[in-house]
Specification:
Blueprint lengths: L7 H22 L6 H29 L2
Helix pairs in contact: 1-2
Length: about 70
């Protein structure tokens, strides 16, 4: 959201990277349980969040310019 000029895929790549980093750190430091379903859930949640943000931005722009 802080980089509006980035493409959708670039934003998703950052989400995937951060999610993978968190799961890797959990595995390395044995904090909690590192699981692929957590990684997939975090990534899917991030993708949905970016999608909702894009939809809201487009709706607000359309309302401002009738």
């Amino acid at each position: 959201m802080l980089k509006p000029n980035w493409s959708f895929l670039k934003k998703i790549a950052v989400i995937v990277g951060v999610s993978l980093l968190f799961e890797g750190l959990q595995f390395i430091f044995a904090i909690g349980a590192s699981d692929i379903t957590d990684f997939m859930g975090n990534t899917l949640g991030g993708i949905m969040g970016v999608g909702v943000y894009i939809v809201f931005c487009k709706c607000l722009v359309q309302k401002q310019n009738p």
